[in-house]
Amino acid sequence: MQLRVRSLETVLSEKGYVDSAALDAIVEAYETRIGPHIGAQVVARAWNDPEFKKDLIEDATKAVNSMGNVSPVGSHLIAIENTDETHHMVVCTLCSCYPWEVLGLPPAWYKSAPYRSRAVIEPRKVLSEFDVTLPDETKIRVWDSTAETRFMVVPMRPEGTEGWSEEQLAALVTRNSMVGTGLALNPEDVA
Ligand code: FE
Prior knowledge:
Elements: H1 2-14, H2 20-33, H3 36-48, H4 50-58, H5 60-65, E1 77-81, E2 86-91, H6 100-103, H7 108-111, H8 113-121, H9 123-129, E3 139-144, E4 150-154, H10 166-170, H11 175-179, H12 187-190
Parallel strand pairs: 1-4, 2-3
Helix pairs in contact: 3-4, 8-9
The protein binds fe (iii) ion (FE).
């Protein structure tokens, strides 16, 4: 795979379709500056600011871009909020579409064939393998990403975090909790 990627890059560079320096800069940005901490800031703000949460659910692209200091999000981001009634989980059954701008590089499992098929066939079982056990009465809704739509989950705010700052709250928001394969951490997990 690496060899194929390198060969493709060489051909595209030789033909002048891509600039290697620009590619390096993009890779560097996603490896070092753009990551799940951006999504975590978004969630923390939504937990603390009902007005922002309303805007986020209405139009995530607009709400995230209004925060400043983030890599601009394309017009395809949708935020979905977990509740006691419904747990949301994100997959791309076709390939590996992922909200890069807010979550950074996708984990290997997200791109794997078993996750992509099993997330829709047996989501509860997949969740249990991620150590997430939900009450039987909680519905699980699986969202299939496409090139046009990317999803980020707003996990439920953990108990015992009243009065916490956005910075403190953001430390509880894991990448998996924003894909729906995890829950936000509890205060005792970060104590
Ligand atoms: Fe995809």
